[in-house]
Design a protein that fits this description.
Layout lengths: L2 H4 L22 E9 L3 H9 L9 H4 L21 E2 L3 E7 L3 E6 L4 H6 L1 E10 L5 E10 L3 H31 L2
Antiparallel strand pairs: 1-6, 2-3, 3-4, 4-5, 5-6
């Protein structure tokens, strides 16, 4: 298994059904991320839906230097299909408090730069006190020189960004 493809996954988790598998698309790259969090799904899900406000990764890179909130903001609107997440994604499916599926906004700068991206965050309870937060990312790279570059660069960049994001979700969920 390549670390940039299966970071943090336990054996067999990549074969779990993910909500993003229900969506059509001709994808040419699939990546998995996973982390164990000592928290129940509802606590973790509260942090996931705050991606409407910030990406929870390296804020200086993907949030214009603004810090991602470090507390749950309860005055947010209800989660809805079509809401923006992490600036470049739309919510396309969710099942509170177990999964959230996002797709890069069509005909957007994000799609122009990164291609078509569909990803599901899935929370799997382990026991009464802990859960696995799994992510499946499906990607269709653009054609041309930028697409060739992204095909080699983006999986590693995504690993770095998602690793930071999942570790921060772990820290925030466990400290609630």
């Amino acid at each position: 298994m390549l670390i940039h493809t299966f970071w943090g996954m336990l054996p067999g988790e990549e074969s779990f059904p993910f909500p993003c598998d229900k969506f059509s698309g001709n994808f040419d790259g699939t990546y998995f991320r996973g982390i164990t969090i000592d928290a129940k799904p509802d606590v973790i899900f509260q942090w996931l839906i705050q991606m409407r406000l910030a990406p929870y990764s390296y804020d200086w890179i993907n949030n214009l230097g603004r810090a991602s909130p470090r507390r749950i903001l309860n005055d947010q609107p209800d989660l809805q299909i079509g809401q923006t997440m992490m600036h470049i994604f739309d919510v396309v499916q969710f099942n509170i408090p177990y999964d959230l599926t996002l797709r890069v906004k069509p005909r957007s700068f994000g799609q122009l730069l990164f291609g078509d991206i569909l990803l599901s965050y899935q929370i799997v309870p382990v026991d009464n006190h802990s859960s696995r937060l799994l992510v499946k990312i499906k990607r269709k790279f653009n054609r041309g020189p930028l697409g060739v570059f992204m095909r080699h660069f983006l999986p590693w960049a995504n690993l770095i960004m998602h690793r930071k994001q999942l570790m921060l979700f772990k820290e925030l969920s466990e400290n609630k």
